[in-house]
Specification:
Length: about 120
């Protein structure tokens, strides 16, 4: 094999390895990039329009009770429409989705489960 052809094959092999690595580790890479860029600014609470049966829980989450055992929890100030659903059973509760990484939703769940909000 000639020298230019060998160099080209090394370059192609290196590119293939880099692309494979980037594909395999794309989620951690995207998370790292997002963390580096920082979170977008939150909307002001006064600017958020609530639904008819929606109420604030703290300064970040809104909750709408869909029925006796089902809650829709929204991150109304976040730049995306993030909704979580809390289904309450007799002995346990199921939270579907955990929202964005901006805040920890587990801090408001006891209020919902005890009926204090």
């Amino acid at each position: 094999m000639t020298r230019p052809l060998r160099i080209a094959s090394y370059i192609l092999a290196t590119l293939a390895l880099l692309l494979t690595g980037a594909y395999l580790f794309r989620l951690p890479l995207l998370i790292t990039l997002a963390q580096t860029a920082g979170a977008p600014p939150l909307a002001e609470q006064a600017d958020v329009k609530l639904g008819k049966n929606e109420r604030w829980v703290g300064d970040y989450y809104t909750v709408e009770q869909l029925d006796e055992r089902t809650f829709a929890i929204s991150e109304a100030r976040y730049y995306r429409d993030v909704y979580m659903y809390l289904l309450v059973g007799d002995d346990r509760a199921l939270l579907i989705d955990t929202g964005s990484p901006i805040r920890d939703v587990s801090k408001i769940l006891p209020q919902l489960l005890m009926g204090n909000c």
